[in-house]
Design a protein that fits this description.
Strand content: 15-25%
CATH superfamily of the largest domain: Collagenase (Catalytic Domain)
Distance between the termini: 100 Å
CATH topology of the largest domain: Collagenase (Catalytic Domain)
CATH class of the largest domain: Alpha Beta
Length: 393
């Protein structure tokens, strides 16, 4: 009876925060990856998996256009957290020390894109059911080969969450929107990264979701307490998220909720970054099973930089500075080449020609022509531009 009174107290006392870590939605099907009938040689023949990462900086205000240094700081955090090389490992309580896992997963940065967003807080905006930040035509940036690369969109959002990760094989998430979504001030450890989410652990947490790891309390806090878990054996059931520990001190071990001490320092809980330190061996097994079952393309990719396709620059066209013309004809000519200019009257007769025109503006005196309608043909190699000209002095 005392235990359930304690659980009721904890559930009723959970504060409501406008700022939270995670907005990820766990699919209803649980996504339990079965071992494929023919295990992937790619994953069985190696202990270390390297996941190529593409970072899309989709910014609206200049402070959201993160520096390369801030991006690199996040990569360093990931490679420490997923290899159990982070300094906080030393603070893991003794009862959990044997559960600490080197996930044997590393990350390499293969591309960074930068896009000025068409909308503020674009990360959680949708149009026609599509997530704006994931599509060029909707104000964001297209995913780069999401079957073979982990795409991370770093952009602002207005729902208070620091981040979100898509679970593998979620039927409600299209393939070109698979990845993670991180708020700029929760990304990396320098620059605009702001406490209490300034140690890069939001990205670690959301990649956990991308690899099919659930929150330790299970499906969600709306479920009956201690009746839902994360489907990992070595993370005991717990009743809540520890999200209230985002200022001041971290939780103190032992903290009990479902009859056993909670592993509040696990990366799949929600305290402040400084309170997080570990994955477990069970989580390692589940994540690697998910790669094999749902994201095998990650095993086929390399860390070679991705050649980004950029839209061709629009060629600057020659243009008339004034039209109608009263004193002189002024042509704005791109300065890279010389142009052949020919002017024809309304009857199609050639009345002026300059085979080596250059300079901008390029001037031709209008006194050479009587008032009327003319056509200027401007040739640069094989490209011909024709402009209608009206002289009215």
């Amino acid at each position: 009876m005392q235990r359930w009174l304690f659980l009721l107290f904890m559930a009723l006392s959970l504060p409501s925060f406008s700022q939270q870590r995670c907005a990820s939605r766990q699919p209803a099907n649980g996504l339990e990856p079965a071992t494929p009938a023919n295990p992937s040689p790619a994953i069985e023949s190696r202990s270390l998996i390297t996941i190529p990462l593409v970072v899309h900086i989709v910014w609206y205000g200049p402070e959201e256009n993160l520096t390369d240094e801030q991006i690199q700081s996040q990569l360093e955090v990931l490679n420490e957290d997923f290899r159990a090389l982070n300094s906080e490992i030393a603070s893991v309580p003794g009862p959990f020390a044997g559960d600490v896992a080197d996930m044997e997963i590393e990350f390499c940065l293969v591309a960074v894109t930068r896009t000025q967003a068409s909308f503020p807080n674009i990360a959680d905006l949708y149009s026609g059911g599509r997530r704006r930040v994931c599509h060029n035509g909707l104000g964001g940036h297209d995913a780069i080969d999401p079957g073979h690369y982990l795409n991370a969109w770093v952009s602002a959002r207005n729902d208070g969450a620091c981040g979100e990760g898509t679970f593998p094989d979620d039927p409600l998430v299209p393939a070109d929107e698979q990845g993670i979504f991180i708020r700029p001030d929760c990304f990396g450890t320098v620059g605009t990264a702001a406490a209490p989410f300034n140690l890069g652990r939001t990205t670690t947490h959301e990649i956990g979701h991308y690899l099919n790891l659930k929150h330790l309390w299970g499906e969600g806090l709306e479920d009956p307490l201690c009746q839902s878990d994360d489907m990992v054996e070595d993370t005991e059931e717990q009743a809540y998220s520890y999200s209230e520990f985002t200022s001041g001190s971290c939780p103190v071990h032992p903290s009990f909720s479902c009859g056993t001490a909670d592993m509040f320092m696990n990366f799949m809980n929600l305290p402040a970054d400084r309170c997080m330190s570990m994955f477990t061996n069970g989580q390692k097994e589940r994540a690697r099973d998910a790669i094999q079952a749902f994201r095998p393309g990650l095993l086929e990719s390399s860390c070679l930089p991705v050649a980004l396709e950029t839209a061709p620059e629009e060629e600057e066209e020659p243009s008339l500075l004034y039209n109608p013309v009263s004193s002189e004809i002024a042509l704005l000519l791109p300065q890279k080449d010389k142009y052949e200019i020919a002017i024809f009257d309304a009857a199609g007769r050639l009345v002026f020609r300059n085979p080596n025109a250059s300079g901008t503006p390029h001037s031709i005196t209008s006194s050479l022509f009587i008032n009327g309608i003319y056509y200027i043909k401007i040739r640069n190699g094989r490209k011909i531009h024709v402009k209608k000209l009206i002289i009215a002095r």
